[in-house]
Design a protein that fits this description.
about 290 residues, Serine Threonine Protein Phosphatase 5, Tetratricopeptide repeat
Length: about 290
């Protein structure tokens, strides 16, 4: 439990013996760690500088209010004005109570450097060595944490770059596929187009044969020497050829369009193989499409 606030210093404070508060009860022995507590532990030796004294009083009040970090900074400002080493000890107490180990270590080291024969100097040096060891451990842990943070950031950056590269590669493949259409599709499509052209021609022939038949046999009455059966066979053959070529050609063209988007490659054993063809004979015309996928 912290002690009650010692009375504020008067502005005329100049003597060390009259101003210095009593040490806490049960001060540590030579073999124990010295760790004074509370506002009464603050040291006030030789504060005969007006500005330094005012700074001290501000720092003292901040310390009493529990604003330890702010108090530590004010004690150090007072030290800068007066160069009174006791203010560094007070800064050490304030930073220690604020949990600011590096600042507390720095202030205590400065105090012991200025006051090597100070009260309880041996215990304070023990305390300083312990604090310095903890600061070293803390800095090492912080450095390790920072290295781990940087490693994780680098790993995340690497993964992001790999993802972006994979996306770019896929987009490039898609563009290549779109620009590199399978030439087999053009061939099959051309065959289909030719078959459609043949179907149109056969349709024209069939229409002509049918018109000639109607002219020769008006009302289905033919001359005696007219070969009706042969004429009807020609009309039927032409009509059948037109139907086969038109519908077959359309089907082959559809296959050709599909083949345009299949990648071709002579070294790819799994590549689709497609053969299309058409033929006409005495009995009519026929279109075929064979493929392996």
């Amino acid at each position: 439990m912290r002690r009650l606030l010692a009375p504020l210093l008067t502005l005329a404070l100049t003597a060390t013996a009259a101003a210095q508060p009593a040490a806490p009860a049960g001060d540590a022995s030579e073999d124990e760690e010295y760790d004074p507590q509370g506002p009464a532990a603050l040291r006030t030796q030789g504060l005969d500088d007006e500005q330094a004294r005012l700074r001290f009083q501000v720092a003292q009040r901040l310390y009493e209010q529990g604003q330890f970090e702010e108090a530590g900074r004010e004690f150090e400002r007072a030290y800068d004005l007066s160069q009174r080493s006791s203010l560094l000890f007070n800064a050490y107490l304030a930073y220690r109570d604020a949990g600011l180990l590096p600042q507390a270590t720095r202030a205590l080291a400065g105090y012991l450097e200025a006051e090597p024969d100070a009260e309880n100097a041996a215990q304070l040096r023990n305390r300083l060595r312990s604090m310095e060891a903890r600061v070293t451990e803390q800095e090492a842990a912080e450095a390790e944490a920072e290295a781990e943070r940087l490693r994780l950031e680098a790993e995340a950056q690497r993964l992001e770059e790999e993802r972006a590269a994979a996306i770019a590669a896929q987009e490039a493949r898609d563009r290549e596929d779109a620009q590199s259409l399978n030439p087999l599709g053009y061939i099959v499509g051309g065959v289909g187009l030719a078959m459609v052209g043949g179907g149109v021609a056969a349709g024209v022939i069939s229409s002509g044969e049918r018109s000639d038949l109607e002219d020769a046999c008006p009302g289905n009455v033919c001359p005696v020497d007219f070969d009706l059966a042969a004429s009807q066979d020609r009309v039927n053959a032409a009509s059948l050829a037109a139907d086969v070529l038109l519908f077959g050609g359309a089907a082959v063209m559809v296959v050709g369009v599909g083949l345009l988007f299949l990648r071709s490659g002579e070294d790819d054993e799994d590549a689709p193989s497609t053969v299309a063809g058409a033929a006409c004979g005495p009995a009519g015309c026929m279109a075929t499409v064979q493929g392996r996928f």
